[in-house]
Specification:
Helix content: over 70%
CATH topology: Ferritin
EC number: 1.14.99.60
Subunit structure: Component of a multi-subunit COQ enzyme complex, composed of at least COQ3, COQ4, COQ5, COQ6, COQ7 and COQ9. Interacts with ADCK4 and COQ6. Interacts with COQ9.
Protein name: 5-demethoxyubiquinone hydroxylase, mitochondrial
Number of strands: 0
Strand content: under 5%
Radius of gyration: 16 Å
Number of domains: 1
Number of helices: 6
Keywords: Iron, Membrane, Metal-binding, Mitochondrion, Mitochondrion inner membrane, Monooxygenase, Oxidoreductase, Ubiquinone biosynthesis
Structural class: mainly alpha
CATH class: Mainly Alpha
Family: Belongs to the COQ7 family.
């Protein structure tokens, strides 16, 4: 994908928010690993974290290629992401997995919205970006399912916890697209 004839505002917004989201996911998994890294669920979290590291690396590259500035909120996502990961992990593996389910479901929904936007704009022009977002969305959905397989729904107040985390994700997405 080149810089020629693209909707610069849309591409900037997509890359900025997706970079912020992948950064936040990395911080969440770092927080979970700080608490649960030496437990039986540690390798499961590490595997998901490794995929998120790959996602972040790719969006770091896209930020340079398309000359997109990061969101000014990165310091907040650094602290809040780690705190969310560690805080939910303190509830046990079920809490960490509930966080994973909530976040990954929100991100998959967000990625689907971006896919729709790019398809409506010009699917051929944005083919590379579309394929990347689809791949990452599918991996996020795998993480979602892993969370369910590891007892996310047994977390204390699962429905409330999930709703609060997803509301936070919506706010983070909204702000990161704009700031």
């Amino acid at each position: 994908m080149t810089l020629d004839n693209i909707n610069r505002a849309a591409v900037d917004r997509i890359i900025r928010v997706d970079h912020a989201g992948e950064y936040g996911a990395n911080r969440i998994y770092a927080g979970q690993m700080a608490v649960l890294g030496r437990t039986s669920v540690g390798p499961v979290i590490q595997k998901m974290w490794d995929q998120e590291k790959d996602h972040l690396k790719k969006f770091n590259e896209l930020m340079v290629t398309f000359r997109v500035r990061p969101t000014v909120l990165m310091p907040f996502w650094n602290v809040l992401g780690f705190a969310l990961g560690a805080g939910t992990a303190l509830l046990g593996k079920e809490g960490a997995m509930a966080c994973t389910v909530a976040v990954e479901e929100s991100i998959a929904h967000h990625y689907n919205n971006q896919i729709r936007t790019l398809m409506e704009e010009d699917p051929e022009k944005y083919e590379e970006l579309l394929q990347l977002i689809k791949k990452f969305r599918d991996e996020e959905l795998e993480h979602h399912d892993i969370g369910l397989d590891h007892d996310a729904e047994l977390a204390p107040a699962y429905a409330v916890l999930k709703s609060i985390i997803q509301a936070g994700c919506r706010v983070a997405i909204y702000l990161s697209e704009r700031l």
